[in-house]
Amino acid sequence: MTQVDERDGQAVLRFIERFSSVFAESGMPRMPARVFVALLSTDDGEMTAADLAELLRVSPAAISGAIRYLTQIGLVSRERETGTRRDLYRVLDDLWYEALFRRDEMLRRMTAPLKEGVSALGPDTPAGRRIAETLMFFEFFHAELPNMLKHWRTYRDERLGERDSTDRP
Fold this sequence. Notes:
Layout: H1 9-25, H2 30-40, E1 46-48, H3 49-56, H4 60-72, E2 76-80, E3 87-91, H5 95-121, H6 126-160
Antiparallel strand pairs: 1-3, 2-3
């Protein structure tokens, strides 16, 4: 199995359950939240489906559905374990940066439909103003995100004493 075995298994499971419940309360389905936190809890950030099923005490089918969800939202990648036919699931490197970067792209794609919505609903109607404010928020967030991510890198590097040469601005 993974590094989780080297630790107090019950303490790790309690952490997984507690932290995943925060994700679940925020809207992530419960099983994907548990799988995501289990992956975060390993030193190398990767596990097989069998390892995840054993750790979380669930069926392989539950793991499969959770992984499908997590890969669709870009939090986990699926790779082939070297020399085997088994899949290895991994949390992405620089996870939170990547998650925000991908969300920014989603928000950017919403701009055109939101503009259409303001026009269709009328800019002076309550619904039109609500959609216009949503559009302004997304435009603001899109404009500010690169600077925020740059500040994040500086903050992280100062605390961890690292600098990744592949960092984006």
